[in-house]
Write a structure and sequence with these properties.
The chain is an alpha/beta fold. The chain is built from seven helices and ten strands. It has a four-stranded parallel β-sheet with strand order 5-4-6-7, sandwiched between helices. Strands 1-8 form a two-stranded antiparallel sheet.
């Protein structure tokens, strides 16, 4: 199936540019600001040489930069591999290798863990999230999202063996959102808690 959807962030930024998209402890991003960050981040990811379909690991705490990275990865058409910041460096390095990540993005809080991963995986370059989004004003223009394309790879808990990477498509996320809207309704003033 080749079904596509318009870029959801770009659509929200056009419809409600000043509405808060992300509210965090120290920052609030409007949909317009998040859209701009996603475009700049996507341009920076492409400038680092990543092609559509390649994998980018993300080691970051919850916050505006991590949310922007998710949207930047989607817009650059790379597959995001979120890593849990509480894992040991050896566990992180194994997931980076297993996923075939070609780049490791990290925030300031995870810089030490990212350097430890880089010492075990020197073939995978590091990029700081704040530097990624402070890149020159180059932009990646939003386009459609193909539902069948991989959005990310998340790792299971690995309680009885090594964790397994589970590929999630854009369709997985779309239908989950549709299911949530059907179950709980959808209003203009809805807010979702990211714990």
């Amino acid at each position: 199936m080749n079904a596509t959807l318009p870029d959801p962030l770009a659509r929200a930024a056009r419809a409600t540019p000043d509405r808060p998209a992300v509210i965090a402890e120290r920052a609030t991003l409007s949909y317009a600001a998040l859209d701009e960050a996603a475009s700049r981040g996507a341009a920076a990811i492409r400038a680092l040489g990543l092609a559509p379909g390649e994998r980018v690991a993300l080691l970051a705490t919850n916050g505006p930069l991590a949310v922007a990275a998710v949207h930047a990865a989607r817009r650059a058409r790379v597959v995001l591999v979120p890593l849990h910041p509480r894992l040991a460096p050896g566990e992180l390095a194994w997931q980076v290798e297993d996923a075939g990540a070609r780049l490791l993005l990290h925030d300031d809080a995870a810089a030490g863990a990212a350097r430890a991963v880089a010492s075990a995986r020197p073939d995978v370059p590091l990029a700081a999230l704040d530097a990624l989004f402070d890149a020159p004003r180059a932009r990646v223009v939003p386009s459609t999202v193909r539902l069948r394309d991989a959005q990310g790879i998340v790792y299971t808990s690995g309680s009885t063996a090594r964790p397994r990477g589970v590929v999630l498509t854009h369709a997985n996320h779309w239908w989950s959102a549709v299911g949530s809207a059907l179950r709980t309704g959808s209003r203009d003033d809805d807010r979702w808690l990211l714990a």
